[in-house]
Amino acid sequence: MAIASSSVTQMNTTAEPSSSSSSASNNSSESVLSVKAAYNREKSDMQKELHALVEEHKQAVDPKTTYQLAESHGRRDFWLFYASLCGDYERIVEYWMEKEECVRAIEVLGHYGTPEMFYKYSPALMSAEPVALVDVLMRQPKLTPNKLIPAFMRYGHEPSGGANQSIRYLRFCIQKQMCRDPVVYNYYLTLLVKESDTDDESELMSFLTTYGKDMLYDPDYALRMCKRFRRIQSCVHLYSLLRLYEDAVELALKQGDIELAQIHAERPDDDKLCKRLWLKIAQHMIQAKQPASEVMELVRRSDRLGVEDILPFFPDFTRVDDFKDDI
């Protein structure tokens, strides 16, 4: 029993230092946390005092020296505070751009940017954060859109990268802000021509038809661009807009689009010209060896041609049965 009692006593005495060590460790951790908290509170109080002091004596503080001191001591928080206090938001924008934190630069521009600041920094920001920048641009009614075109020209949009943000902003200016600047219209047109697909010219055609009557864009320039990028449907429309109706019909026929050719054959005010264009379409169909019945259907639809107008274009061996009813 004495041995057992002695063993228990020894076990208890050996266990006590472990409990004591754990308690000491916990106390030490709590002490460190307490010191850190006290340090942070003191630091915060000192910052508030410094800010209040500088704010109170702002006129007596030399900006150049203040910025240099803040930079040399790595006090970014005070540097930004002082720049904000001085209303030096352009310096803040440049600071964030140097740090490659473009979203923060855009946020500052959104709250404090002047039009000139937007024109100056948009080229770089458009390349880095186009969506965020356009979101902010659309909330700036005092901007002159054509002064932002250099920024859009530097914006390298990839089709796989989602919506073209230059188009998004210019569409907003035209449709929502009712911009009437021909420079904006022509550049918007350029982007639409480049972005549209040969199989889908819907947005480009919508723009051309909506704003062509008032000539808010240059139709000659538009035609050159559409020819260059082979936007055929748009080219046909622009030929008609420029009253080059024969060119419009010929291009439509060249593409095998009989229906489009018929639409533009009816555009001229001159009845003789309309008849000549419909005859051109009929001749094209005959030369393409389309059935005589389809040619006669075209004649009836035109309401300008008679069977006597198209008979000379048919080969001599054409069956008369195809024309019997019309004759």
In brief, what are we looking at here?
This protein is 70% helix and 0% strand. The protein has 18 helices and no strands. Mean pLDDT is 83; it is low at 1-17.
Identify the notable features of this structure and list them briefly.
327 residues, mainly alpha, elongated, disordered N terminus
Q: What is the multimeric organization of the chains shown?
A: single chain
Low-confidence stretches: 1-17
Task: State the share of residues found in helices, binned by percent.
Answer: over 70%
Strand content: under 5%
Description of the structure:
- It is elongated, with a radius of gyration of 39 Å.
- 70% of the residues lie in helices and 0% in strands.
- It is mostly helical and 327 residues long.
- It contains 18 helices and no strands.
- Helix 14 runs parallel beside helix 16.
- The N terminus is likely disordered.
Protein topology:
Blueprint: H1 2-56, H2 63-72, H3 76-85, H4 89-98, H5 102-112, H6 115-128, H7 130-137, H8 149-153, H9 165-175, H10 182-195, H11 202-212, H12 219-228, H13 232-241, H14 245-254, H15 258-265, H16 271-287, H17 292-302, H18 307-310
Helix pairs in contact: 1-3, 2-3, 4-5, 5-6, 5-7, 6-7, 7-9, 9-10, 10-12, 11-13, 12-13, 13-14, 14-15, 14-16, 15-16, 16-17
